[in-house]
Amino acid sequence: MTSLTRVTGVRVFDGEQLLPDRMDVTFGTGGILAVDPAGSAVGGEPTTDIDGGGATLLPGLIDAHIHLHGRDTLQQLAAFGVTTGLDMATWPVDKVAALRDIAGRDGLADLRSPGLPAIGPAGHHAHFVPAEAVVTSATEAARFVDARIAEAVDYIKIVAEAPGDGGPDLPALTALVDAAHEHTKKVFAHTATPGAFAMALDAGADILTHIPLGPPLDAATVSRMADNNTIAIPTLTLMDGIASARGVAHAFAGSRESVAALHSAGVNVLAGTDANAEPGAPAQVAHGTSMHRELEMLVAAGLTPTEALRAATGRIADLLDLPDRGRIRPGLRSDLLLVGGDPTTAITATRDIRAVFIAGTPVHRALGDAAHRSDSSTPSAEPSSRVVQVPE
Q1: Where are the beta strands (DSSP E) in 52-183?
Q2: What's the pTM?
Q3: Which of 182, 179, 90 is nearest to 137 (CA)?
Q4: For 147-183, what is each residue's pLDDT tens digit?
Q5: % of the chain surpassing 70 pLDDT
Q6: Is 105 in the same domain as 229?
Q7: Residues 145 and 216 grouped into a single domain
Q8: Membrane-crossing residues (predicted)?
Q9: 3-class state of residue 286 by DSSP
């Protein structure tokens, strides 16, 4: 008989809100079995109990913008409570397939991927993305999307550039979006500059990733985002890194103001970091630990801690076609994060990680503990001694 795990007397953020009472949450490798008022769970299969007093149980975090490098990427994400990562460009198809085979079990983060992204003939990405990714016409757009669908991708990624910067022109971008929608696939658009942001919005992309540095988005653009139900993934951690590397830290203030305006207008703002270890990238962003900084930056930009947590759990699951995760509810995947304190009142509490489970399996966190000790970008919460750590 398979042993279950039960976290007792714990606060529960269920992906939408902090439940009003302490709960006992029982789960196994097959999913979440029960969410009961504390002390009411009785009998049943053998369980390993964890004292949740003083801690909060969250759904595993979902990073809506990462770049895969291998098994180590999935390990590092998991070590920091990021139990699902949405990849934004990985090729060849055999590499993606091999990572899919191991993802989401045995303590490794799960993944979703678009495979190869669509690019233009002369933009920045043309220097390192294969030539088969170049799209310059509606015919090529249809062919590109058909090829990705044959590879069983989860969504389509397009790289928008400002007009004249070598990316796909507006007709090609629009054709890519239309072809993806014909296959019921959402379109993520790379939009790192104001011109690229405007083109991707004109093309009808569903999700715009990156908020440009510099002056904040104008009111008309913000209104269009809201009216079109376009989703924003600002990747504030990346944009701050780029601004710092270029010595234009003041430009990041505009990005943060853009996020505040989008949020105030009702645009869905989701948590994504652009975690990557690419040589020559505008800024490298550590996998896993960066999600905690992203949550803190979203709060600094005007989201409440609860809204920021939704942006990395239930809201992402709702909007990005992940119905089996992002919430603590019987029947869903047992991807869970146990942290000290209450992150709905102090978002930094997410850094005080006590245990991570992926599909009910405890994650070995030695990698995460070492990285936390070396990460001085944001202080972690004070540890609590009232929770029993899951044996690793």
Answers
A1: 55-59, 61-66, 82-87, 110-112, 156-159
A2: 0.93
A3: 179
A4: 999 999 999 999 999 988 889 999 999 999 999 999 9
A5: 92
A6: yes
A7: yes
A8: none
A9: coil
